[in-house]
Amino acid sequence: MITGSRLRVDLARLRRNVEAVRERMAPADVLVVVKDDAYGHGVEPVVRAAVEAGAGWFGAIDADSALRARAAAGDGARVLCWATAGADEVARIVAADVDSGIGEASHLERVASAAAALGVTARVHLKIDTGLHRNGIRPEDWPTVCARAAALEAEGAVRVVGVWSHIAEASDAADDEARAAFDDAVRVAAAAGLAPEVRHLAASAAAWHRGEFRYDLVRIGAFCYGVRSADGPELDGIDAAAALVAPVTRVDGAAVAVDIGAVDGLFSTLAGRIDVLSPSGPRRLVEVRAFESLVERWPGAAVGDEVVVFGTRASGAATSTDIAERIDTVGEEPLLRLSPLLPREYV
Q1: What per-residue confidence (pLDDT) applies to 85?
Q2: Main-chain phi, psi angles of 100, to 5 degrees
Q3: CB-side exposure of 84: number of CA atoms within 13 Å?
Q4: Residue 323: domain span
Q5: What is the pLDDT of residue 2?
Q6: Same-domain pairing of 259 and 210
Q7: Angstrom distances, CA of residue 28 to CA of 121, 198, 207
Q8: Which of 207, 258, 261, 295 has a 20 to 30 Å separation from 99 between CA atoms?
Q9: Which pLDDT does position 86 carry in this prediction?
Q10: Looking at residue 228, what is its pLDDT?
């Protein structure tokens, strides 16, 4: 019987990744990012495995991933959702005891209103725009928002538990400027009477390479899943937690057909540019069709053989970042493009 294509997720490997990240970031805590269904790996299995590896923080842009993480993480963990959401979604986030990332004044008011209606105090992290301009309170508005947050704290509607930002990671000089702006914002928040528990500025790359950016908490997404930065170095103690595998369905002349195609999320532009890992070693990906792909034939190829489109360095396969670099994108994208209908297999 031929088993179809699937994303095979190695939870032991993921735990080792989280442990390696936590060791490097200490004494800062690590927030494991589980946005977009944990980068396509599946929120619930990832969160449970990360908790076993000692993770105590999780975070997501989207409310769905954050709420699923909250349900899977147990009472001992904290979850942050940083989407700017409408009133109904905000109410669900606050009711679930999920921290809210606040990037604009109106979002702060929605969270405070939801908390008041529920009779609870909502935990919030105020976000300063340090130059990325993707989301965050503008520096000229920051003192006013901090003062308003302090007033809402006095009313018992919110508690400001964090000050945070995203940085562009465009250059060391630009990142240093962002860090200086962040430090200024923390001082302004303190002057307004706020006493956040955690400051967090850095995500995977900056946190990994520059210790001064770690503060109290770092938000690590791709690296926990074993996805290195495009054009970046390999990471000590880190390897891919997932492999995209597909069986041979037909042997035909100089090529074999495998059960993975563009409809499943495989880039058609990878054809002719990458090798997949066959039982006899690397073989060229010849063509990506809608529901299948053609791979250069190897000696003894047979129906049911398994090829690895991307996987772990340890196995000899190309990683998701390796194949992404061939088409000038980032290592997360081959994972995020995969259809949610493609089965996930946990080992």
Answers
A1: 76
A2: -110, 130
A3: 14
A4: 242-346
A5: 61
A6: no
A7: 26, 10, 10
A8: 207
A9: 85
A10: 93
Same domain for 138 and 52: yes
Looking at the fold, whether 59 and 109 belong to one and the same domain comes out as yes
Question: So what's the pLDDT on residue 133?
Answer: 80
Q: How many CB atoms lie within 10 A of CB 237?
A: 11
**Whats the size of the chain, residue-wise?**
347
Does one domain contain both 264 and 203?
no
Tokens standing for 244?
A: 């995209």
Pair 243, 315: CB distance under 8 Å: yes
Q: CATH no. for residue 87?
A: 3.20.20.10
Q: Tell whether 41 is covered by a domain.
A: yes
HSE of 38, CA atoms in CB hemisphere, 13 A = 27
Same domain, 37 and 154: yes
- Reduce the DSSP state of residue 120 to 3 states and report it: coil
Alpha carbon distance 133, 136 (integer Å): 7
Ordered mean pLDDT values, 10 residues apiece, the chain (347 residues): 86 98 97 96 98 97 93 94 87 96 96 97 97 89 98 98 90 90 97 98 91 96 94 90 97 95 97 97 97 97 97 95 96 96 96
- Give the pLDDT score at 131: 85
3-state secondary structure of 199: strand
Q: How many structural domains are present in the chain? A: 2
Answer whether residue 235 is part of any domain: no
102, 125 Cβ separation under 8 angstroms: yes
In a domain, 108, yes or no: yes
Looking at residue 317, the DSSP 8-state letter turns out to be P
Single-letter amino acid code for the residue at 244:
L
* Residue 307 in tokens: 């090829």
Looking at the structure, tell me whether residues 135 and 49 fall in a common domain: yes
Task: Give the tokens for residue 77.
Answer: 């963990």
